Amino acid sequence: MQREPIVAVATPYGESAIGIVRLSGGGVLDIIKPYFKSKGGVKPRFAHFGRLVDKKNETLDECVLLYFKAPRSYTGEDMVELYLHGNPLILRQTLELLFSLGCRLAEPGEFTKRAFLNGKLDLTQAEAVAELISSKSELARRAAIRQLRGELSDKVKRIRDTLLNLCAYVEADIEFSEEDIPTLSKEQVIELLNEAIDSINSLLETAKTGRFLREGIRLAIVGKPNVGKSSLFNALLKRDRAIVTGVAGTTRDFLEEPISLGGIPVVLVDTAGIRETSDPVERIGVERSRKKIEEADLVLFVIDSSSPLNEEDLEIYEYIRDREHLVVANKVDLGYKVDVEIFKGNSIIKVSALTKSGIKELEAEILSRVGISLNEDVGTYISLRHEVNLRKSKEVLEGFLERYLSEEISPEIAMLDIREAISYLEEIIGVVATEDILGNIFSKFCIGK
Ligand SMILES: Nc1nc2c(ncn2[C@@H]2O[C@H](COP(=O)(O)OP(=O)(O)O)[C@@H](O)[C@H]2O)c(=O)[nH]1
Ligand SMILES: [Mg+2]
Predict the structure, then answer these.
(1) How far does residue 227's CA lie from ligand 1's centre (Å)?
(2) C-beta of 234 in contact with ligand 1 (< 6 A)
């Protein structure tokens, strides 16, 4: 379907070698043609060199024009791309010319939205386009490209097909119940349901890592005074940011700095003490540190490996032990006297913030704790929107399974439940998509995409 013509600059604002203006919609070639002077006509998928002129026939710029004829274009509509010189003035004048010719400025993500509406991409693929553009790490980029190529959609579709299959049998059961046609045994129904639930679960497991890839990880460094928290903070930051002294209580407020671990954005927080105190300044520091610990995705619990643990260590450990944490024994250059009994089941990472030994291992351990392995092949990671729908779908299926196991459910009711579970899955790929969902997704795009 061809919608009204839209136009946008597809390259970033500023001086650059080339600036691209994109047009999409019904009749865009006819709109631009009188103002594009070149030898010969314009053929689809050929680069044409020529001059762009304004309404007074004055040359605006020399440029290359590409024409994509519907439906063989990104949006599925007729599209024209103009490769002009990358000067904001030229690009603005080009836009103004096109506005005066009846084009309107595209909304953020409108090109991709049209691609979706024309069936060029499904919804997870459209989302992947935005992620591909915004990905801040190699890993996030790789995950986005896999999603763009349909890997996530395929997984969701496979689950949907299992459920559709189930539906088909139930339907046959309703319509031909008098006749002798093959139906599924109770065991087979349960097996199919469990298969679907298992597949949903394995997708749900990727949610957390997906969030870390997209939004980064918050790391809080916690421990009693003088164990080397600030030193470790500096070592991970790779510069001297926090003040380090032998005087306990130097860090009275938390410090926060962004770093990148294997390309993943990490916010590193050096906390002050978290013990009760009567000093009013320190108390505020303690409050704030506790809040930072609450917000952290992972806590680095630092101990001084050169002396045995004491009450204060244990008190702090008690405070954080139920949170996702790593035990870091610092100052290994001074020896190792830690009683490991307390941390049973929890591996201890030995480092020296002074000599920097063990820091690399610590970095790898941090990433692996949040489910990111730099060497392994990445899959696809679901986003919050996918997660919400998968959970709803799973809930319906589990509720259904429970009732199915305990009592006789009429086939009509069974159908309704399975159809509902399917509809949540279809929302993910966009088989059913409301304006709300679309608005939410495409408003996050940049203009011109
Ligand atoms: N030998 C040695 N000393 C360290 C190490 N890390 C920190 N220190 C020293 O321990 C003291 C306290 O360090 P600091 O980072 O301020 O500890 P914080 O109070 O936990 O932030 C300072 O004198 C540091 O130089 C280490 O790995 N080895
Ligand atoms: Mg400190």
Answers:
(1) 6
(2) no
Per-residue pLDDT for 172 more than 80?
no
Alpha-carbon separation of residue 215 from 169, 292, 325, 386, 432 (angstroms) = 43, 17, 19, 16, 28
Rounded distance between C-alpha atoms, residue 380 and residue 182, angstroms: 38
* pLDDT tens-place string over residues 217-270: 999 999 998 999 999 999 999 888 877 877 776 666 778 898 988 778 899 999
353 CA to centre of ligand 1 in angstroms: 7
**How many angstroms separate the CA atoms of 268 and 110, rounded?**
37
Cβ of 226 below 6 Å from ligand 1 = yes
Residue 243 alpha carbon to ligand 2 centre in Å: 7
- pLDDT value of position 240: 83
Residue by residue, DSSP assigns 104-161 as EEPPTTHHHHHHHHTTSS-HHHHHHHHHHHH--SHHHHHHHHHHHTTHHHHHHHHHHH
- CB of 11 shorter than 6 A to ligand 1: no
CA of 432 to the centre of ligand 2 (A): 53
Q: 246 CB under 6 A from ligand 1?
A: yes
Which residue's alpha carbon is at the smallest distance from atom 7 of ligand 1? Answer: 228
Ligand 1 within 6 A of CB of 70: no
CATH numbers and ranges of domains, the chain: 6-122 (3.30.1360.120), 149-206+382-428 (1.20.120.430), 216-369 (3.40.50.300)
CA 378 remoteness from chain centre? 13
Q: Which amino acid is at 134?
A: S
pLDDT tens figures, 335-385: 988 877 788 777 899 999 999 999 999 999 998 888 777 666 667 899 999
